[in-house]
Amino acid sequence: MATFHTASILVVDDNPINLKVLFEILQQSDFKVSIAKSGESALEKVEALLPDLILLDVMMSGIDGFETCRRLKANPKTKEIPVIFMTALSDVVDKVKGLKLGAVDYLTKPIQHEEALARINVHLELRQTQMKLVQKEKMSSLGQLVARIAHEINNPVSFVYGNLPHAQQYINDLLKLLHLYEIYTPHPSPEIQAYLEEIDLEFLKQDISKLLKSMQMGTERIRDIVRSMRIFSRLDEAEYKPVDLHEGIDSTLMILRSRLKATNQRRAIEVVKDYGELPLVECYAGQINQVFMNLLANAIDAIDERIEDWEKNRNTGSQCFIPKIRIRTEVIDDYTNLVISISDNGVGMSEDVKNKIFDQFFTTKPIGKGTGLGLAIAYSIVVEKHRGTLNCKSKLGEGTEFVIVLPQLCYKK
Ligand SMILES: Nc1ncnc2c1ncn2[C@@H]1O[C@H](COP(=O)(O)OP(=O)(O)O)[C@@H](O)[C@H]1O
Ligand SMILES: [Mg+2]
Q1: Which residues pair with 391 in a beta bridge?
Q2: Fewer C-beta within 10 Å: the chain N or C terminus?
Q3: Ligand 1, from 300, 353, 357: best to mutate by most atoms within 8 Å of Cβ?
Q4: What CATH number does domain 8-111 carry, 3.40.50.720, 3.40.50.2300, 3.40.50.12580, 1.20.140.10?
């Protein structure tokens, strides 16, 4: 699996010499280091930095390390960040108090390089593992939720959808009956006449069929979405079995439909499907759909980002720009490999970014938008679970292509 992203560490100490020593050790080990010279300043900076780990001196003027830690743990945004306390050998501090406050470890000053790095790495790795587990759990319960919602909506929608043609038929019958009355009773009583005018019968006749048609379209759409949700989650089919990959791609596109639509900033994204003749493909369908979802969502983000960049530079080119995602599938190597390529004409990536995209937690998106897990997960599903390959070609300012190759046994359709 790909390497971890550069971990960031916040060092808090009121002693400039300690700060300098730690800063150098950590920077030499390729950590991203920030410093704060007091508890107050650490609390001010921490929300913007959201470091992976905090090294916190206990004895400081102003609020001490314990109080700083207490406040970090009381803030939902920062309470998950592991804190390691630093104390001088000569300090008489209550170590248990620190651990009770939620600290994960202690380092003793003067800092021993090797020991400090070993301890820091242990806690960073623990945190990565924990976040990975949380994410996995979230995804699987999300899949279950999607499947359950789809199941629950399916029945009532079927009632509506299934009964609409009958409703249409009854209404046609009644209109026909009315028509016959009109022919054979040309001069109805004044009461009927008045009522005909009141309900504006002519308008009603025209409008009712439009109304039924739009109800039909609405229910069809709900039915398609529900179907896509079921195909997408594929909880019923957790095992390795032959499936139609195009169906998986189409249902993923359906789920992303609202994001493909035109916005104030751009036209609708054109999706070009260049589907080859694919056999049924042996795979974990739910997981492969997750890969499509992650790649397609990134492609849409990349297109939106390109347009944002244009807007920022007040470039007029954006009006003529046709945002496009192309999905190509084909069988190669005499039916032993399948290729699925997803390309976009979004922002593209620099070499530097491209080298890190499969790293867990690597993201260039703002906090709250990106998790930096989409491609790491896609990579592990394609490469580790399916023994395939996942490659990326990209050019800054032009676009990106992801190519999945899945090895296949021959399952001719
Ligand atoms: N199609 C793409 N075009 C440009 N950049 C991309 C594309 N797909 C991924 N990236 C880059 O890779 C990073 C990691 O992607 P991902 O693992 O899905 O995490 P996230 O989408 O949460 O940032 C993105 O933040 C982005 O910088
Ligand atoms: Mg993503």
Answers
A1: 403
A2: C
A3: 357
A4: 3.40.50.2300
Ligand 1 binding pocket includes 349 (Cβ within 6 Å): yes
Name the nearest CA neighbour of 400 among 269, 298, 270: 298
Please, are residues 62 and 39 in contact by the beta-carbon 8 Å criterion? yes
Q: How far apart are CA 256 and CA 293, in angstroms?
A: 8
Q: What is the mean pLDDT of the chain?
A: 87
Q: Is the omega angle on the peptide bond into residue 242 within 30 degrees of 0, that is, cis?
A: no
CA of 371 to the centre of ligand 1 (A): 9
The fold for domain 243-411 equals: Heat Shock Protein 90 (3.30.565)
Which residues, including other chains, have CB under 8 Å from residue 403's CB and lie 6 or more apart? 339, 340, 341, 389, 390, 391, 392, 393
* Model pLDDT, residue 1: 33
Sheet of 105-109: strands edge to edge?
32-36, 8-12, 53-57, 83-88, 105-109
Length in residues, the chain:
413
The beta strands (E) that lie in 18-92 are given as 32-36, 53-57, 83-88
| Reported pTM | 0.61
Residue 392 in contact with ligand 1 by CB distance below 6 A: no
The confidence band for 404, taking pLDDT boundaries of 50, 70 and 90, is very high
Q: Is the CB of 294 under 6 A from ligand 1?
A: yes
- The pLDDT value recorded for residue 5 is 59
Residues 77-102: pLDDT tens digits? Answer: 899 899 999 998 777 777 888 888 98
The minimum-distance atom of ligand 1 relative to the CA of 294 is: 18
The amino acid at 368: G
Bridge partners, residue 405, by sequence: 339, 389
Residue 177 tokens, joined: 């009956």
pLDDT attached to residue 285? 84
- Residue 170: CB atoms within 10 Å: 11
Query: In the predicted model, what is the mean pLDDT of residues 31-39?
Result: 95
Residue of 138, 298, 360, 377 best suited for mutating to test ligand 1, as the one with most atoms within 8 Å of CB: 298
Query: What residues have CB less than 8 Å from 2, skipping those under 6 apart?
Result: 358, 359, 360, 376, 379
Higher pLDDT among residues 285 and 244, named by residue: 244
Do strands 8-12 and 53-57 pair parallel, antiparallel, or not at all (unpaired)?
parallel
Give the pLDDT score at 318.
64
